[in-house]
């Protein structure tokens, strides 16, 4: 298990595994920057948390990124950055259900607190793809002035906190109207920090690894 996780190059795992790992499954996406011996790149992996063994994998496209799971634990929505698409993956049995269109460079995904919406931010094309997981269709694309990096909903689901490229801070988006209601700037960067990193990382860390139990 340790070998598997540390082999994901450049990936920081900020979420600790539960103390009891029996019946716990990891779902892992592998893209351009990840190097794992004897594992296909650009794939979606299923890993048994207790043994560290890969129990399943499917090709998913060019450079899959940071996924989110539906509230019922049955599907993963994975931004596929190199294909400008969002992959809908059924977790058990494992299969690629469909792909949905996205503006260029879909990067990060999140699920609304009530589970009725999936949001995917586009890093290069700028915008937030809003998806209805009940129909597995795109509802709309919310325009943003710059590329979207991580994004997270407020606890009541009424707002989205959106990290924008070249902004040391975040935008607050009204989830109902899709309009930006506020931009929050957090100050200045320390000297020597390069411009591409002028965005705020919201949430608990990279999500190329999702943790859960297989749906019954």
Fold blueprint:
Elements: H1 2-6, E1 25-30, E2 43-48, E3 54-59, E4 68-69, E5 75-80, E6 85-91, E7 94-101, E8 106-111, E9 118-122, E10 128-132, E11 137-142, E12 148-153, E13 159-164, E14 169-174, E15 180-185, E16 209-212
Antiparallel strand pairs: 1-2, 1-16, 2-3, 4-5, 5-6, 6-7, 8-9, 9-10, 10-11, 12-13, 13-14, 14-15
List keywords for this structure.
single chain, 216 residues, mainly beta, Methylamine Dehydrogenase, Chain H, 4-stranded antiparallel β-sheet, 1 helix, 16 strands, 42% strand, globular, disordered N terminus, disordered C terminus
Question: What does this 3D model show about the protein?
Answer:
The structure is a single chain. This protein is an all-beta fold and 216 residues long. The protein has a single domain (2-212), classed as Methylamine Dehydrogenase, Chain H (7 Propeller). It is built from 1 helix and 16 strands. It has one helix spanning 2-6, and strands at 25-30, 43-48, 54-59, 68-69, 75-80, 85-91, 94-101, 106-111, 118-122, 128-132, 137-142, 148-153, 159-164, 169-174, 180-185, 209-212. Strands 3-2-1-16 form a 4-stranded antiparallel sheet, with no helix packed on it. Strands 4-5-6-7 form a 4-stranded antiparallel sheet, with no helix packed on it. β10 (128-132) and β11 form a beta hairpin. The radius of gyration is 17 Å and the shape is globular. Residues 1-21, 194-207 and 209-216 have low confidence and may be disordered.
Catalogue the unreliable spans.
1-21, 194-207, 209-216
The number of domains is 1
Name given to the CATH architecture: 7 Propeller
Looking at this structure, what is the CATH superfamily?
A: YVTN repeat-like/Quinoprotein amine dehydrogenase
**H/E order of the elements?**
HEEEEEEEEEEEEEEEE
- Give the averaged pLDDT, no decimals: 78
Q: Helical segment tally?
A: 1
Q: Main sheet?
A: 4 strands, antiparallel
Number of strands: 16
Rg is 17 Å
**What is the beta-strand fraction?**
35-45%
Structural class: mainly beta
CATH topology: Methylamine Dehydrogenase, Chain H
Major beta sheet, strand line-up: 3-2-1-16
The CATH class turns out to be Mainly Beta
What is the 3D form? globular
Q: Span from first to last CA? A: 24 Å
């Amino acid at each position: 298990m340790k070998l598997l996780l540390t082999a994901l190059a450049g990936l920081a795992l900020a979420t600790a595994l539960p103390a009891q790992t029996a019946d716990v499954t990891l779902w892992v996406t592998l893209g351009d920057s990840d190097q794992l011996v004897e594992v296909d790149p650009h794939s979606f992996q299923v890993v048994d948390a207790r043994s560290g063994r890969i129990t399943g994998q499917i090709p998913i496209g060019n450079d899959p990124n940071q996924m989110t799971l539906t509230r019922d634990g049955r599907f993963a929505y994975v931004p596929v950055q190199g294909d400008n698409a969002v992959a809908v993956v059924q977790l058990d049995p494992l299969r690629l259900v469909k792909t949905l269109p996205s503006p260029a460079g879909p990067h990060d995904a999140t699920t609304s607190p009530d589970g009725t919406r999936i949001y995917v931010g586009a890093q290069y094309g700028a915008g937030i793809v809003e998806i209805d997981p009940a129909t597995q269709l795109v509802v709309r694309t919310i325009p943003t002035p710059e590329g979207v990096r991580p994004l997270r909903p407020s606890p009541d689901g009424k707002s989205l906190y959106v990290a924008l490229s070249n902004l040391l801070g975040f935008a607050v988006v009204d989830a109902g109207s899709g309009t930006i209601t506020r931009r929050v700037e957090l100050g200045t960067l320390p000297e020597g920090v390069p411009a591409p990193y002028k965005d705020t990382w919201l949430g608990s860390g990279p999500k190329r690894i999702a943790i859960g139990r297989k749906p019954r």
